[in-house]
Amino acid sequence: MNAVIFDLQDGFDDDEVIIKIDGRQVFHKNRVKTDLRLGLADTFTAPTAGGTSTVEVAVPARSLSETFPLDSADSPHVGIAVCNNRLEVRPSRVAFGYA
Amino acid sequence: MNPSPLAQPPQAAPVPGSDGVPDWKCRKEGPVSGRYEGEMTAPTAGQMLLDLRLDIDPRSVSSPVMNRISGDLYQLQRITVPGRQLTTWRVYRESWVVDAPVVTWERCLVTIRGTVRFWRGIHPQTTVEVRVPWAAANPVGPATVTFAQAGGMTASYTCGKKSDAFRELTLELAVLKSVNDATPFRMPVYDTHSHPTRPVDLRQRTLTLEQCYLDAGTRVTIRAPGPTIIDDSAPPGQPPHSGWTDAQLHDVMAKYFTQFGSNWPNWQMWGFLANTYQQAGVGGIMFDASIIPNSSRKPNEPDRRGFAVFRDHEWFKNLPASAPTTDAQSEAVRKFLYTWVHEAGHAFNFLHSWDKNRPDALSWMNYDWRYDQRNGPNKFWSDFRFRFDDEELIHLRHGDRPSVMMGGDPWSSGGHAEAPAAAEYLDTPPGAMSAPEGAYPLELTLRSQGYFEFMEPVSIELRLRNVLPDLPLSLDTELDPALGGVIIHIRRPDGRIVEYSPLLCKLATTTPHILKPAPAVQGTQTGEDRYSQEVFLSYGKYGFYFDDPGEYLVRALYQGAGDVLIPSNSLRLRVGHPLHKDQDRLAQDFFSDQVGVNLYLHGSRSASLKTGTEVLQKIADQTEETALQAKVSAVLAHAAAQPLWGIRSSPTATTTSASEPPVLTLTEATAPDFKTALDLSKTALAFFKANKSPDLNLAYSRLVRQRAKYHLSTGGATQKGHAKKELASLHTDLAARNVNSAVLQKISADAQAIG
Ligand SMILES: [Zn+2]
Questions:
Q1: Would you say residue B48 lies in a domain?
Q2: Could you report the per-residue pLDDT of B358-388, keeping only the tens digit for each?
Q3: Which of B163, B190, B214 finishes a domain?
Q4: Does any domain span residue B380?
Q5: How far apart, in whole angstroms, are the C-alpha atoms of residue B215 and residue A53?
Q6: B19-49 pLDDT, tens digit each
Q7: What CA–CA distance (Å, rounded) separates B285 from B278?
Q8: Residues of B at the A interface (Cβ-Cβ below 8 Å)?
Q9: For B353, which residue in chain A has the nearest alpha carbon?
Q10: Is-above-0.80 flag for pTM?
């Protein structure tokens, strides 16, 4: 089975975050808040069908949303951050590290 | 921002021999830069002490010059005891920095001049001149320092050179036994040329945590004899604990860090090598921060004392037992060094580079992958020169002392020496948040419950304790700020620091109180070495002080007879949010002078405060049992038990002539109503009995004493019995809460006196 590890990184401040893969909701939390010591708010693993999927990320209260294609074989790790009132997507082949 | 040059030559080349002094006599032994320390010489010799940092020439080839000077000022305190060594201690007052010093080099002397910027408080414009001479075969210095205030006041200091570093710190290490058993503990040692990805012109040298911090300006000494090995052996067949949480890391620090119970802030740090963090992606963390929800932290605990590094993180998989032989091993050692330096950096109050708007900084405080995402693959390690960026170096070397020192300002509260003092700090009184250092004779401790409900009256306990081992002290122990012997500062949730101003300034002749010496054996306290008083702080001359939900920091300065100056610990407390809409609405009426004065007077039946009393009655009538309701009920009970006095012209004043004033008589207008007082305080008594927090002990004792008086005043043998029973019950409850024997004896004595 294929899977993608999502890391919600910097810029979250008690936000509601919803993530869907190919229209199916894989994450919904209400109070996502970045731990400034790490630049990390939350992390979770979502199964995917393999190949290229469509990922939708939304922070409704700030009217932020982003839709992007993702190949889980190519980028099994995805960082998502709120920067300058925009959603930033950071696909990665390797795991992110925090300190 | 460009990195600063690694070396700066003196700005003016020495002029050879024009003054007749041969060149060899002007040979300088080492840099001028470093730490100097010395006492005030004028206007009052020995009154103050200056810790001075000069950063104007290279300390070494790998230590950039920041071209700043800065210092910390302390008040010096001494007590002479006949036949004994002088007892001295110092109290930190404030720090300052010169952002743009003008440096003039001569052959045997450097003069540094500039405008002083104090970090906190309001000061007249001040300039400073520092002169540092040198001569061959002698240490550089001493520095003579003269501050000149606009208006003509000057102060001078003579400071000898103490170190080439600007600050000194002791790092204590600990390691889990399971981690140490797998690979014996070894701090990172990295050869800067061992990995091919590096700046082409990077000098080859061996880096350790100590060397990296020495480059940055702080001498780190690792506490002997070596790391504490923490036994985490699990029952046979089970793996040792892993997936550490912040709370667990904090608890281990509390148990094993030998300096945990010391006086904070302090230049002490604790570094712990554990196996894994609760989130597997985390290689290290500065876990000691009050912004993190963490049930094991006491409400007034300081921040930034400890950090952890996680040995089983992916980053350190290839760590070799000795020198690395492959790129993968070198990379692991490099990351291991990075993590240690980075986490200690958080304890010095550094945020990450991107949180300071410097995402492209080549600093220990950036992440390699974040830098690479913006600048290209492998760019971080191709460009990184194993240093902090300039702004961080300025903070570490010249920042405001409490914002740098471990256990000082909370993490991420400040730590930005590069920015001008934040506006919220402008009215911070100097020394408001300092701790005594050295052999001080007295200790002032503030205590209170950690959490207050919204609108709940805030009273805190001030406790003065003799810490001399063998001398009784006769002291003015009146700790009420209205009497002037104690000054209280409150830092509000918005960062503003205000001085508590009492509603009334009382004048009283103070009776000295003898505090016996501290007992030689811990745990044998009878309480005679200390004196406690509860002080009401909710309301004062300028209104309510705790009227916003959020975190407050309270600190007191005891200024007893003479020049004694003892700062207290800083007490952290939280004020909650309104419980519901009704309470929010009630707040409008509550935060009024009518209620404030009422609470300040601990209840009043005066007709002029009737509106305030009605608001309090509304709260007392609420059905839910809260601390707010209990305390307000106690206030109303106290009011009911007071007689109300009136002033009347004497009806028998027949002799009054036009030229004489009428004779006035004080008469009791309303008699005290003890029965009502007892009824009103019944729920409060039940509340204090049920809530076993030691923070409520004083309020509980006071209420029982109050009620004993009401019982006795209503007369009768039954009432006497009630008073005795309530005192006995208080005794039992407080004994169970480990209250010291002096307090318990006093309660027994009070009960016996009833007869
Ligand atoms: Zn960090």
A1: yes
A2: 999 999 999 999 999 999 999 999 999 999 9
A3: B163
A4: no
A5: 49
A6: 677 888 889 999 999 999 999 999 999 999 9
A7: 11
A8: 279, 281-286, 289, 291-292, 313-315, 338-339, 342-343, 346, 351-352, 354-355, 367, 369-370, 373, 411-412
A9: A39
A10: no
Chain A residue closest in CA terms to B280:
A97
Residue B638 shares a structural domain with residue B732: yes
* B461 and B571 part of one domain: yes
Domain count for chain B? 4
Per the listing, tokens 């408001």 go with B432
Tokens 């980028």 appear where?
Answer: A75
Distance CA B81, CA B541 (A): 40
Which residues, in sequence order, are CB contacts of B485 under 8 Å at separation 6+? B476, B478, B479, B510, B558, B559, B560
- The reply to whether B159 and B269 lie within a common domain is no
- Three-state secondary-structure class, residue B534: strand
* CA distance linking residue B636 with residue B603, whole number of Å: 6
A89 CA → ligand 1 middle, Å: 21
- Looking at the domain covering A2-92, what would its CATH class be? mainly beta
- Which residue range is the domain that position B213 belongs to? 167-347
Of B285, B313, B338, the CB nearest to A38: B285
Q: Where are the domains of chain A?
A: 2-92
Q: Do B343 and A7 touch (CB under 8 A)?
A: no
**Domain termination site, one of B347, B368, B384:** B347
CB-nearest partner of A37 from B289, B314, B354: B289
Burial class (CB in 10 A: 0-12, 13-18, 19+), A73: exposed
